[in-house]
Design a protein that fits this description.
Largest sheet of chain A: 7 strands, mixed
Number of helices of chain B: 11
Number of domains of chain A: 2
Order of helices and strands of chain A: EHEHEHEHHEHEHEHEEEHEEHEHEHH
CATH class of the largest domain in chain A: Alpha Beta
Low-confidence stretches of chain B: none
CATH topology of chain B: Rossmann fold
Low-confidence stretches of chain A: none
Strand order of the largest sheet of chain B: 1-2-3-7-6
Number of helices of chain A: 13
Structural class of chain A: alpha/beta
CATH superfamily of chain B: Thiamin diphosphate (ThDP)-binding fold, Pyr/PP domains
Radius of gyration of chain B: 19 Å
Strand content of chain A: 15-25%
Number of strands of chain A: 14
Oligomer: heterodimer
Helix content of chain A: 25-40%
Shape of chain A: globular
Radius of gyration of chain A: 19 Å
Mean pLDDT of chain A: 98
CATH architecture of the largest domain in chain A: 3-Layer(aba) Sandwich
Mean pLDDT of chain B: 96
Order of helices and strands of chain B: HHEHHHEHEEEEHEHHHH
Number of domains of chain B: 1
Helix content of chain B: 40-55%
Distance between the termini of chain A: 42 Å
Strand content of chain B: 5-15%
CATH class of chain B: Alpha Beta
Largest interface: A-B, 42 and 45 residues
Structural class of chain B: alpha/beta
Strand order of the largest sheet of chain A: 3-2-4-5-7-6-12
């Protein structure tokens, strides 16, 4: 099985979906000749032409709004927001339009659309090239929110997102674009939107994570294994709608839960997971539900020591695991 | 352009029907039978003239909440409109989910719109982009008030359409007020049409109370768009004869003298006198039309009052496209 990076898997998924369905097209800033600032769309303009790989004006709300309109006509746009931090101008189109269209038209109009956005810190991007903003969107019925953590899932989930009849926000851990490698089969496959995945079996406690933090969580679990701590890791993969069953089953087995995300703590996505566990597995718990998150500051600061202070990583996760294991 | 007598009669009928329905909506509100109405009185000539320039049911439309006459011209029925006012299950825009006059009509290619203004103009550009990608020969009409041209979304939509020469007609129904704020506080230019020159498309202002002038100008714009000539911006100058909505009190921001003066330009009266002068319709034929309109409005109210509300279970869906079948099953 060939090994590839996240970004290669994402590119391959788009390439295959554009080949499969001529209604699929890409729109975003620099997605054409430049192939995207992260090269996610590299080469696609040569293959599919500028009519299907469209360099947008530098205006995020209309990248999404144009996508909504095209989707209403039966197309299946893949809208690229260059950095998730720049998505806010498009909030009205995502939250008030794309997410509500099916419900508000009683099912007469739907918006089959993917919005791809690289998210996350640790790459020296400062406040405005580092943000994690999944929590804004996991509060919005009508949207689906997906975050892959590895190349296999990135390819399979993105293909599912393109085929989904709803608006799907697809947040990509940009630090992992070239860092995270993995085996990806040549054969056609998809990974369904919805199910979380137990990526490491264990019995002492469960770490719930997604995206880049899942990558670190696996490493942290490996590190503490030599100390005799047997950690289960769950990759949430689809944040909304959330797979409550897999979460609760794991907690019922391990009785301790640590939730990790790099978005800041208060009102973050981890709160929803914690509430899910408290509600559905209260009597199984042997310890408080713990969260390891970014601090409650506006965003990731630029200077390296400050960035390191902000970002959860392998060491911080391992420390939290040890503390929770001792409880 | 020579307009046929049949066309003139049909357009006048739509204006008349829209006015009588709109007036009934105000009456229903005052009777406490509906909670809200947003009116299009004064906009009828502009909307009917624009609608009739389209291949109705073939071209696509992204409207706004003041477009009653436009929607009737595109095939929405009086019963459907009144059911929308009452939030009845059978109303076709949303099954009672949206506030009244938040239009949408799938069978007529009218896309659903929301309350935040100008959002639908970007959809219109996106639809037009899709039309161009598929090499279809459809045209998109999108409508908006002059206040909403202050929104960034509107500029981005027009910019896209101009860059890609998309088949869209941007209609601005300038009725002088955005609720209470007059047009001079919305824009430094004299006409919203002047904004076109900064965005790279042709812009025109027309007298929105002049049905024939509106129709002819929109025919030209639609023809240009259909033949690959790109978008056009048209401002129709009208006057909002009523308050913004049933919750507004326009006496707090404009004089009665101003309103009375503008009523002299009432597009329905103007169309009527024109059409009588031309001999297209006689006074007695117009009286017959009035009877027919009254009958239809009465029927619509009777029908809507007896129509069922949605069942509360229906409030839970369809949030996602996968749930649409659930809706269809429950209607079966």
């Amino acid at each position: 099985m060939p090994e590839m990076t996240m970004i290669e898997a994402i590119r391959q998924a788009m390439d295959e979906e554009m080949a499969r369905d001529e209604n699929v097209f890409i729109v975003g800033e620099d997605v054409g000749l430049r192939g995207g600032v992260f090269r996610a769309t590299q080469g696609l303009i040569d293959k599919y032409g500028p009519e299907r790989v469209i360099d947008s004006p530098l205006a995020e709300l209309s990248i999404v709004g144009i996508g909504v309109g095209a989707a209403l006509y039966g197309m299946h746009p893949i809208c690229e927001i260059q950095f998730a931090d720049f998505i806010y101008p498009a909030m009205n189109q995502i939250v008030n339009e794309a997410a509500k269209m099916c419900y508000r038209s009683n099912g007469d109009w739907t918006v089959p659309m993917v919005i791809r956005a690289p998210y996350g810190g640790g790459i020296g991007g400062g406040l405005y090239h580092s943000q994690s903003l999944e929590a804004f969107f996991t509060h919005v019925p009508g949207l689906k929110v997906v975050i892959p953590s590895n190349p296999y899932d990135a390819r399979g989930l993105l293909k599912s997102a393109v085929r989904d009849p709803n608006p799907v926000l697809f947040f990509e851990p940009k630090k992992g674009y070239r860092l995270i490698r993995g085996e990806v089969p040549d054969d056609e496959y998809t990974v369904p939107i919805g199910p979380a995945k137990v990526t490491r079996e264990g019995s002492d406690l469960t770490v719930f994570a997604y995206g880049m933090m899942h990558y670190y969580a696996l490493q942290a679990a490996e590190q503490v294994a030599s100390e005799g701590i047997d950690v289960e890791v769950v990759d949430l993969r689809t944040l909304y709608p959330v797979d409550r069953e897999t979460i609760l089953n794991s907690v019922k087995k391990t009785s301790k839960a640590l939730i990790v995300h790099e978005d800041n703590l208060t009102g973050g996505y981890g709160a929803e997971i914690a509430a899910t566990i408290a509600d559905g597995a209260f009597t199984y718990l042997d310890a408080p539900i713990k969260r390891l998150c970014g601090p409650d500051v506006p965003a990731v600061p630029f200077s390296h020591p400050l960035q390191d202070w902000f970002m959860p990583g392998v060491e911080k996760i391992a420390d939290e695991i040890r503390a929770l294991n001792r409880f | 352009m020579e307009l046929s007598a049949d066309l003139k009669r049909e357009m006048f009928w739509m204006m008349l029907l829209s006015r009588r329905l709109d007036e009934r909506a105000w009456a229903l509100h005052r009777q406490g039978k509906i909670a809200f109405h947003i009116s299009g009185i004064g906009h009828e000539a502009a909307q009917v003239g624009a609608a009739f320039a389209l291949k109705r049911g073939y071209d696509w439309v992204a409207p706004y909440y003041r477009d009653l006459a436009l929607m009737l011209s595109l095939g929405m029925t009086p019963r459907e409109f009144i059911m929308g006012l009452m939030g009845k299950r059978e109303e076709p825009t949303s099954g009672g989910r949206q506030m009244p006059s938040h239009f949408g009509l799938r069978r007529a290619n009218v896309v659903s719109h929301s309350s935040p203004v100008a959002t639908q103009t970007v959809h219109a550009a996106g639809i037009a982009l899709a039309i161009k990608m598929r090499k279809d020969d459809r045209v998109v009409l999108t409508t908006i008030g002059e206040g909403s041209t202050s929104q960034g979304e509107w500029y981005e939509a027009v910019n896209w359409a101009a860059i890609h020469q998309l088949p869209v007609v941007f209609m601005v129904q300038n009725n002088q007020y955005a609720i209470s704020v007059p047009a001079r506080k919305q824009m430094a230019v004299k006409s919203a049409a002047d904004k076109a020159c900064g965005l790279g498309l042709p812009g025109f202002q027309v007298d929105g109370n002049d049905l024939y002038q509106v129709y002819e100008r929109f025919c030209e714009a639609v023809e240009l768009a259909r033949s690959g000539g790109g978008p056009t911006l048209i401002e129709t100058l009208v006057y909002r004869i009523t308050p913004h909505s049933s919750d507004d009190d326009d006496r707090t921001y404009r004089s009665r003298e101003e309103v009375e003066m503008n009523k002299r330009n009432d597009p329905l009266l103007r169309a009527r006198s024109e059409i009588e002068r031309e001999g297209v319709l006689s006074a007695s034929e117009i009286a017959e039309m009035e009877d027919r309109a009254l009958e239809m409005v009465n029927d619509a109210v009777r029908y809507a009052e007896q129509a069922p509300y949605p069942s509360v279970e229906e409030g839970a869906y369809p949030v996602y496209a996968e749930q649409i079948r659930q809706k269809e099953a429950s209607h079966a």
